[in-house]
Amino acid sequence: VREVAESSETGSATLIIYGLALGYKSAIIPVFLLALTVFASFYLCGLYGVSLAALGMLSSLSIGLTIDAYGPITDNAGGIAEMAELGKEIRDITDTLDAAGNTTAAIGKGFAIGSAALVSLS
Fold first, then answer.
1. Which of 15, 24, 51 shows the shortest CA–CA distance to 3?
2. What CA–CA distance (Å, rounded) separates 101 from 80?
3. In CA terms, which of 53, 64, 71, 93 is 20 to 30 Å from 78?
């Protein structure tokens, strides 16, 4: 966080570039793991293996979609609690649930992107 703050001292352009670089850096491990999965499945069973790997990721699609739908539900709960002027303790609970919903939505999107990449190869 301090490095991001330091990059903003020279201007907004360097802050944007640094933020993009951090975002790309966080995607390196999943991309390499997906590439390793494609290579290993193709090496072992050819295109059939890639299809099996895609099917394995798609089998968790229902769970991923359910997790992805959790984010907006908790966000709406927080908005309703705020509009109803409920107490701070209620808002703290809904904020915690909203953070969990955002995290699970991001995880669900990762599974969707990975399975789409495997399906496009098979």
1. 15
2. 16
3. 64
